[in-house]
Amino acid sequence: MRTMPGFSLETLSWLLPAPVDFRKQIKALADGAAPMNGAALTGLATHALDLNKLTQLDRLLERTTEIEPGPLAPVRLAVLADATAEYIASAIRASALRHGILAELYLPDYGQAAHEVLTPDSGLARFGADMVLLAFDYRSLGLDSVHMAPAAAEAAVEGAASRIEMMLSGIRQAGTATVILQTLPIPPDPWCGHFDRQAPGAVSAQIAALNTRITALAETHAATLLDIAGLAELVGRARWFDHAYWHRAKLPFALDLVPLYADHVARILGALRGKARKCLVLDLDNTCWGGVIGDDGVEGIRLGQGSAEGEAFLAIQRYALDLKARGIVLAVCSKNEEDTARLPFRTHPDIALKEDDIAVFIANWDDKATNIRRIAQTLNIGTDALAFLDDNPAERARVRQMLPEVAVPELPDDPAWYPAALAQAGYFETTGLSADDAKRAEQYRANAARVVAMETIGDYGAYLSSLEMVCDIRPFDEIGRTRIAQLINKTNQFNLTTRRYTEAQVGEMQNDPDLFALQIRLTDKFGDNGMISVVIFHKSPDKWTCDTWLMSCRVLGRRVEEATLATVATAARAAGATQLAGSYTPSPKNRMVAEHFAKLGFNCTFEDPDGTTHWQLNLAAYKAPELPMTLTGPLLEVAT
Amino acid sequence: MMRTMDRASIYESLNEIFADVLDLDDVDLTDNITANDIEEWDSLSHIRLVVSIEREYSFKFSNAEIEALTSVGDLVDHILAKAA
């Protein structure tokens, strides 16, 4: 395959071109030792694959019975489409590997989607989907006719909206919590011409009205929006629709665009399973400014208004800041003397990024892969939560080789296209924004300040007291819902059972009298950490059993776990229970909490063959410890 | 276009396209081969074949033309006629 000199959405040009021996590599995997390695599959998928190659990868998955998922999260996805969906199904399953998802797919027979949703013993019901992708086409929804009477157009939109709503309710009743709902692209050919914008009976107006309804439906039904209308506009609607293929095989859009479409579905699946990246690591020379600071000096580098090149680099910085505004952490990894690397941040008049915006700043002459590992350690996140932007192909290749789990976009020659490559790669996809997102980058930076403070004080107990911590513990509520769901789906390390729940399920937990579900926030003198822990216990008369216990690693070692346990124990006792129980289910990432319950004074009662350990705490013998923090929240009155 | 357009070179690239689309190791097409002769050549992979050929030779088949195709020989005739 030829490499593209510029930037192209259709060919996913932020990904490396597929290796020439792609089929051979697939065959090697197929013939290799069982079980097949999930990381190796991701490695193959992380290329710009056309539909044929995606189909080959899908066939490999189809033929393989034993896969060791490793870091991949399993998803059972049903694709409910009212057009031919076989191609997109194959492509979604192969592309999902790229975004950390090992998907099983279910596709009802053509035209059977609604029937299967509404029939209790359908193939769909037996499949047991975790997620459903609802992909409607305007032609099947009856929005392909124009209307002279506005009321008729309104009725058509109403009919389509109620059909979608019926499907949403049916899917929910059938037990699938997560629905991904597509908006509908508007076909390119006009009816009246420019007047279409003012004609409610035009097909374009009807679809636009339906998309507004779909957006509202996604809100009320807690569904995740997949903005295919937006994607079609991005590539061009005239390019998106291919009438010949609709007539020929009921293909809803041009087959050449399936790889792009599938990558967008896959990134949403990844985001729903907490696989989106959390931190952008930036190279400096020729990435954040033009030139080499060590050679050119502050006066010599190109940055800022006045030159096309300088503006392009400024745009990169601005895009990084836009990401930071919604909680993406920024880090720097540069081959430079540290003082030299920091100079533009301190003295260049046009620089947009400030030192304060960078949570971890590493400039030295070490290997970049080593430094990137250090950045992940300092931030207490996995290297698979990082994306790395570097203009130098050799550095990119090196980091890809050493740390294949780090997302490293290929970049066009012209830096003016760097923000596009980074933005269109979809590394930082999110399915919602919460108030905490706005604060997160600041929180990571404050953490670095705490590390310095601890080094100065030395005595850890004295250090904790000096933090003036305030820990707020309260039951699930409406305000916390989005962030609770985020934590449940993103937290991998400090997570005892790694059970994932959607925002809709979290909403249902709020009012479940059989649950004791807590959201915990922590503030200290360096800043507000926001919500950092979620705990769910099942109540029974004698014993409360832990379903979920997770915490952000940012507040590790702050004794929040102990404050949490004290709150649960007090409430359980007040309800007449005598025991607390919990278990630890090992995952590839949660080793760090294997001894969590032991540290809190629980006794191990037994261990399953898979390594899951079960724990119990006798409440009569439990005494709450003195803690170096102030507790707040509505449960305190119950506690005292 | 820089490509030489004769039956031999078309067969060469069609062999590659068929291998890629149908996920087959060795493809050796001849004029008389039809979809009945290759198990993987079904209605779904047929569409991908057509699209891959259109992309390789930068032209589009009409639906009428596709319906008239019965053998690999027909396909090669069409490519010669449309892309020459």
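The two ends of chain B are 9 Å apart (CA to CA).
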